[in-house]
Every structure is written in C-alpha cells, then in structure tokens.
Design a protein that fits this description.
By secondary structure, the chain is mostly beta strands. It has one domain. Helix content is 6%, strand content 29%. It contains one helix and five strands. It has a three-stranded antiparallel beta sheet with strand order 1-2-5, with no helix packed on it. It has a two-stranded antiparallel sheet with strand order 3-4.
C-alpha cells in the first residue's frame, strides 16, 4: 500500500472493498487507486477529483 499526499491510496491488486452499505466491489487491476478525499464520482475508486481542489494557500491573501 502507498499513501500519496493529497491523493489516492495505491494498493496492489486485485482488491475487494466493502462499502459503508455492506456492498463489496472488486477491481482486478494490477494497481488500484482508492479515493481518500470522497470527491470521486466513481467512489471508492479514484477519478482524480482531488486535483480540482483549490489549495488553501491559493485562496489566502497575504
């Protein structure tokens, strides 16, 4: 497993994920990107939605 700063959790596949509602989803990919920001439209899989987030430093005026 690899944790990425401000990005997904990368896990060597295949992977089974149990969702909050008890459903089990599976990916047979070699490396799976699990969403850590919960912005993904394909949750629990990462769709790079975290990249569209505006960094806090860019919104501050100093």
């Amino acid at each position: 497993m690899t944790l990425t700063r401000d990005g997904p959790i990368l896990i060597e596949g295949p992977v089974e994920v149990v969702l909050d509602d008890g459903r089990v989803v599976r990916s047979d990919r070699f490396v799976v990107a699990i969403c850590a920001c919960r912005r993904s439209r394909k949750y629990p899989w990462c769709d790079t939605s975290h990249r569209r987030r505006t960094p806090a430093s860019a919104t501050r005026k100093g």
